Each structure stands twice: as structure tokens, then as C-alpha cells.
Amino acid sequence: MTIRKIARMGHPVLAQKADPVTDLADPELRRLVEDMVETMIDAPGAGLAAPQVYEPVRVVVFQAPVGRADPGLSEAEIFEHTAPLTVLVNPEIEILSPAREGGWEGCLSVPGLRGWVERPAHIRYSGLGLDGKRIERVAKGFHARVVQHECDHLDGILYPQRMTDLSRLIFESEIRHWLEGKT
Ligand code: NI
Questions:
Q1: What's the gap in Å between 48 CA and the centre of ligand 1?
Q2: How far apart are the CA of 52 and the centre of ligand 1, in A?
Q3: In degrees to the nearest 10, what's the CA dihedral of 58, 47, 36, 8?
Q4: Three-state helix/strand/coil letters over the chain
Q5: What residue spans define the domains of the chain?
Q6: For 39-85, what is each residue's pLDDT tens digit?
Q7: CA of 24 to the centre of ligand 1 (A)
Q8: d(C-alpha 174, C-alpha 183), whole Å
Q9: Residue 153 C-alpha to ligand 1 middle, in angstroms?
């Protein structure tokens, strides 16, 4: 496994539509996924899409740990708000409710910055695992956010393009000014 270099905003690979994966058994694909997981964990990040390591194919890896979920959720809610380390090939997203939710996002391709992004709060997503089995889950909260953020990368979209108020595009080191008193 290798930690790969991460493309940064402005590189054309991040602005293009990625191609579907056609051969799940391709050893190159397996190597790519292993490297993506290692690169994500090393960074560290909650998710990574293949175009971020200069491979324009429709593969994402992500995790939504309990520590990132909203506090005070019931056990049933935590199920939808969290996900183990997941590899998703050729993902699709279906929006289940028009309600949107704002949250601070960062991106390994936009280092040092955070932005306030509103996204659909309740989604269903599906795709293939590396074993060829179909994955289908309902997601809310941070889980829904990370999946939408990563899948946006496959369509050449970075989170600043989803922002409606650019005064909320800030340096990570200044985020304390926004978080204070907002508990
Ligand atoms: Ni990103």
C-alpha cells in the first residue's frame, strides 16, 4: 500500500466527470482502493474520492464514526448517522426529503479551509462493494454529508461550489470564532 499524492483545487482531474468502473476484479482497482484507504487515514480525512488521487473513476471511500455524529441521538438514529469504513463503487444517491441541513465541511483537496454547506439531510445511497455485493443504506447527519461530498467529487464538484454564502469560507484555524457559543 502506498500513500498517494492528493490533487488540490485547480487541478483539472478534480473538475471532470469520472468514469464508471467496469471491472471489479481489475488488480489496479484493488490497488487503488487500498491506497485510497491508506491515504485517507494518513491525511487524516473522513472520506476520499478516486479523482483526488488523480484517478478519474467512480470510487469513493469514507467513514462516519460515532464521534462525528450529533450528540444525543438514540441508538436507532445512530444507525443512520454512522457508517463503518466503506468502499463504494459506481455510487448513486437518492434524496429522500427536501429538508436541507448546514454543516462545516473541509476537503483534503482544499487544505486549510472550511466552508458552511447546506445539503439534503436525508438520503439513500447505493453502489457496489469491492466484493461485487450491492450496498444500499439510508443516511442522515454527518453520514449523509460525507457521502454527498465524496460523490460530488465524481462529478467534478468541490464543496465551495455548493456554498451559497462565501463569507462562510474560512481558514480552519479561525473556526473557533464560529463555533463559540453555538453549542
Ligand atoms: Ni473532498
A1: 6
A2: 8
A3: 80
A4: CCCCCCCCCCCHHHCCCCECCCCCCCHHHHHHHHHHHHHHHHCCCCEEEHHHHCCCECEEEEEECHHHCCCCCCHHHHHHHCEEEEEEEEEEEEECCCCEEEEEECCCCCCCEEEEEEEECEEEEEEECCCCCEEEEEEEHHHHHHHHHHHHHHCCCCHHHHCCCHHHEEEHHHCHHHHCCCC
A5: 12-179
A6: 999 999 999 999 999 999 999 999 999 988 888 898 888 999 999 99
A7: 24
A8: 17
A9: 7
Ligand 1 centroid – CA 78 distance (Å):
23
Active-site residue list: 150
Q: What grid cell was written down for 72?
A: 444525543
Give the whole-angstrom CA distance, residue 174 versus residue 8.
21
Q: What is the pTM of this model?
A: 0.96
Report d(CA 105, CA 178) in Å as an integer.
Answer: 13
What is the tens place of the pLDDT at every residue in 77-114? 899 999 999 999 999 999 999 999 999 999 999 999 99
The CATH class of 12-179 is: alpha beta
